[in-house]
Amino acid sequence: MKAILHADKEWGIGKNNSLMFRIPEDMKFFKNMTTGNVVVMGYNTLKSFPGGKPLKDRVNIVLSATPAKCDGCIVVNSLKELFGEISKYEADKVFLIGGAMTYKTLLPYCSEVLVTKVDAVGGADTFFENLDKNPDFELVFESQPVETNGYIIRFTTYKNLAVKQI
Ligand SMILES: NC(=O)c1ccc[n+]([C@@H]2O[C@H](COP(=O)([O-])OP(=O)(O)OC[C@H]3O[C@@H](n4cnc5c(N)ncnc54)[C@H](OP(=O)(O)O)[C@@H]3O)[C@@H](O)[C@H]2O)c1
User: Fold this and answer.
1) Average pLDDT for residues 41-63, to the nearest whole number?
2) In the chain, what percentage of residues exceed pLDDT 70?
3) Ligand 1 test: best mutation among 43, 48, 78, 166, most atoms within 8 Å of CB?
4) Which band of pLDDT confidence, cut at 50, 70 and 90, is reported for residue 60?
5) Residue 51 above 90 pLDDT?
6) Do the Cβ atoms of 67 and 47 come closer than 8 Å?
7) What does the alpha-carbon distance between residue 153 and residue 109 come to, in Å, rounded to a whole number?
8) What is residue 37's DSSP assignment?
9) What is the C-alpha separation between 129 and 104, in angstroms, rounded?
10) Which of 47, 75, 96, 146 is deepest in the core (most CB within 10 A)?
11) Which protein residue has the closest C-alpha to ligand 1 atom 25?
């Protein structure tokens, strides 16, 4: 499984259960990576989508401890159930797409983290762990800066050197 996210200079990832940035180049990257694959998310992230609807052309797996309902999603209510579900797919096809709570729980199981770094401070209320301070993670790729829609972004990949088996 790989995690995918965008983060600001402070590793902020969200505000008021929403994203802080809508950057078309980043959205295109997210879509390219995840379309035709499996996306895993927490219930708050599902609710943050327009109309609370799942992402199309992807298998949507949603973690919720309450018996949440969602047309077009597979709802799992424990990590055990989640692991049973994602083991049906090749690990490289499974993308963890947030949010903060779900990233935190599942980060040890991710082989890679794809972070689009936004050179801005968005005033986040929700954060991802600073991977530069985590010795288990190594920055293995960083793109040249891309100037887009008034933002400077960089596509980066962190490798998990101590990935936990599911
Ligand atoms: N920058 C990015 O790339 C990015 C990507 C995604 C999300 N975000 C942002 O992240 C924020 C949302 O993050 P969040 O931490 O509030 O929410 P979240 O991780 O999306 O969802 C949390 C919910 O997921 C369920 N859940 C999580 N772990 C579980 C487990 N082990 N077992 C059962 N259920 C579990 C629970 O749902 P129930 O309460 O139903 O039990 C929990 O309340 C928003 O601001 C969003 O925009 C940012």
Assistant:
1) 96
2) 99
3) 43
4) very high
5) yes
6) no
7) 26
8) S
9) 8
10) 96
11) 64
Output the CA torsion sign for 83, 43, 96, 158. negative
Architecture in CATH of 2-160 = 3-Layer(aba) Sandwich (3.40)
Ligand 1 in reach of 1 Cβ (< 6 A): no
Please state the domain extents for the chain.
Answer: 2-160
75-96 residues labelled b (16+ CB within 10 A) or e (exposed): bbeeeeebeebbeeeeeeebbb
105 lines ligand 1 (CB under 6 A): yes
* pLDDT score for 108: 98
CA 46 – CA 96 distance, rounded (Å): 12
Q: Name the pairing type of β-strands 94-96 and 38-42.
A: parallel
Compute the average pLDDT of residues 65-85: 93
Reference 43, options 84, 91, 100; nearest CA is 100
Q: Which two three-digit tokens encode residue 144?
A: 């040249």
Are 160 and 137 in contact, with CB atoms under 8 Å apart?
yes
Q: Count Cβ atoms below 10 Å from residue 30 Cβ, excluding itself.
A: 20
Confidence of residue 69 (pLDDT cuts 50, 70, 90): confident
